[in-house]
């Protein structure tokens, strides 16, 4: 059975003491887990027995004060990067075109990419979800040599941090849509799609029954180390 990737998007909630507590408490060794703390705390996480990721990246060849490039990430042993999170699309106006440049650059530097896509509540209500997702996937991934190192995270914006969940069938439909766009419009076979949005220790067992997904992107519930390790064990139990 394919090993599911489990990504912790720790966002910006933690202060220094929380980060230190986290690395003291999180003891497990997991090949399929990627922790993405705020980059100012990354050094604390270097001794954890999981892979590390950034929450964003900038593209090389352009100088931009305050950003982090793929080359810098690689030089620190970082393996993954989250690109196009809906919070960045919303607050920073990150466009699909900018996201495409970031994905290209990260792929060229052999970073694993976690590309976030998903419709807003309004887009869902107006029946535009599929069209929005198609455009996000197509524009972000066009012109990429191959997507072996890319996982696409389907994260409905209305499910992020809200405790609202799509049904398993709704998730499955969107996952199949994303795989179809990758195959039919971009020529990428076997795209990997993961799910994100309000995943927690209570609902993960049910979500883990969806055959078509390749893993999870977990925000709030990843910031508490004991809870996150419980979630990891539930997901990984499916494979044993
Ligand atoms: P959540 O966040 O798990 O807190 O809903 C997911 C995300 O923003 O990636």
- Please give the share of residues in helix: 25-40%
Question: What is the total number of structural domains?
Answer: 1
Question: Any idea what the radius of gyration is?
Answer: 17 Å
Spell out the CATH superfamily.
Aldolase class I
Strand content: 15-25%
Largest sheet, order of strands side by side?
1-2-3-4-5-6-7-8
Small ligands present: 2-phosphoglycolic acid
Mean pLDDT: 96
The CATH architecture would be: Alpha-Beta Barrel
Task: Report the end-to-end length measured between terminal Cα atoms.
Answer: 9 Å
Description:
It is a single chain. The chain is of the alpha/beta class. The protein has a single domain (5-237), classed as TIM Barrel (Alpha-Beta Barrel), CATH 3.20.20.70. The protein contains 10 helices and 8 strands. It has helices spanning 16-25, 42-45, 70-75, 86-91, 96-108, 121-125, 129-141, 168-185, 204-207, 225-237; strands spanning 5-9, 29-36, 49-54, 80-83, 112-117, 150-154, 192-196, 215-218. It has an 8-stranded parallel beta barrel, surrounded by 4 helices. The longest helix is centred in the last third of the chain and has 18 residues, at 168-185. It binds 2-phosphoglycolic acid (PGA). 2-phosphoglycolic acid (PGA) binds at residues 9, 155, 160-161, 196-199, 217-221.
């Amino acid at each position: 059975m394919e090993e599911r990737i489990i990504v912790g998007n720790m966002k910006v909630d933690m202060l220094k003491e929380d980060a230190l507590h986290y690395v003291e408490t999180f003891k497990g060794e997991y090949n399929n887990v990627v922790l993405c703390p705020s980059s100012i705390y990354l050094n604390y996480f270097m001794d954890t027995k999981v892979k590390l990721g950034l929450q964003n990246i900038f593209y090389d060849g352009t100088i931009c004060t305050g950003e982090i490039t793929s080359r810098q990430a690689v030089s620190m042993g970082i393996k993954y990067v989250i690109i196009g999170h809906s919070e960045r699309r919303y607050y920073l106006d990150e466009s699909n075109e900018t996201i495409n440049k970031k994905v290209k650059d990260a792929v060229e530097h052999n970073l694993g990419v976690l590309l976030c896509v998903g419709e807003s509540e309004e887009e869902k209500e107006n029946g535009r979800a599929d069209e929005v997702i198609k455009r996000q996937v197509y524009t972000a991934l066009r012109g990429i040599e191959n997507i072996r190192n890319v996982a696409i995270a389907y994260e409905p914006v209305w499910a992020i941090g809200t405790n609202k969940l799509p049904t398993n069938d709704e998730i499955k439909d969107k996952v199949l849509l994303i795989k179809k766009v990758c195959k039919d419009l971009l020529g990428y076979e076997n795209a990997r799609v993961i799910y994100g949005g309000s995943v927690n220790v209570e609902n993960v067992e049910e979500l883990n029954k969806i055959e078509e997904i390749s893993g999870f992107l977990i925000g709030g519930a990843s910031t508490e180390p004991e809870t996150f390790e419980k979630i990891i064990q539930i997901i990984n139990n499916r494979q044993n």
